[in-house]
Structures are given as structure tokens and as C-alpha cells.
Specification:
binds hydroxy diiron-OXO moiety
Amino acid sequence: MISEALANALSDQVNAEYYSAYLYQAMSTYAESTGFKGAANWLWVQAREEMAHAVHMYQYLLDRGALPTYAAIDAPPAPASFSSLMDVFQAVLVHELKVTARINDIATLAMQENDHACYQFIMWYVNEQVEEESNDKAIIDRLKFVGENMGQLLTLDNELAARVYVNPFPTDVKLM
Ligand code: OFO
């Protein structure tokens, strides 16, 4: 059985993952509205991954004999409030740094409670955050390099179009 404090922390994170999905959906909407369909695709795939994280976490809570509490999900920024792809991907990085801090806090709590199972569970997310931050930084670097060059921007957009959703937890059929 998981402790109440850890169950609450994971439950909050379930809601945070749904907020991440909602945020990336809003960003995807902005990108699509400005003709960057590749970036829209990349962000939509990201939104789907965030929903998979939420489901994975609530299933873990169930496995440990706890139930998640579903709270209201905050509204993301309006799609029209973004001003450029650089603005969007910088906001992605700012958001992911906050998520990393939250995941690290859960890992610390699991360690303090000697909950080895939960620690092992959350370590998947610790590693995932390294990858997410690195992917976002790589796109920001490309955007800096590309600047206002529309040809290169469209090349980058085409590359972002190639991203496909892959269920991060293939044994879980709910996430196909
Ligand atoms: Fe769930 O990894 Fe991003 O937020």
C-alpha cells in the first residue's frame, strides 16, 4: 500500500499531466492556425504522450491500492496569445522545467519514505524529463539558427511533421 502523501503527490501529478496535454493542444492549435502543420503535429503527439503519462500514473495508483482525485484542469493560454514558433517552444521548455521539478519532488518523497517500488516507478519519469528537455532545447537551437529564413523554417516544420505517436507503455492497451 502506498502512503497517503505519495498517493496525493502522484494524484496531483496525474492532473498536471492532463494540464500538460491541454497546454500542448493549445500550442498545436496555434501552430496549425499559422500554417506550421509539422509543428502542430509535433505538439499534438506531445499532447497524446502527456495523456498516456496521466493514464499510466493513475493505473499505478490503482495497482498500489489508491485512487486518484481528479481536480479541475486549469485553462491553458489562448492559442492566439502565442506570437511565434520560438515563443511556443520556449514556453514548452519553461513548462517542462517545472514538470521536472515536480517529478524530482515525488522521487525525493519516495526515497524519504523508503518506497522502493514508487521510486523505481517515478525514475522512468526522471529519465523521460531529461529527454523532453533535451528535445525542446534542440528545437529552440534550430529556431535560433533559422531565424527569419522562411525556407529553413519550412524545412524544420517538415522535420517536425515526421514525428509519430508511439505508445510509451506498449503493454497498456488503453494507450494505443
Ligand atoms: Fe509528462 O512529460 Fe512533459 O510534461
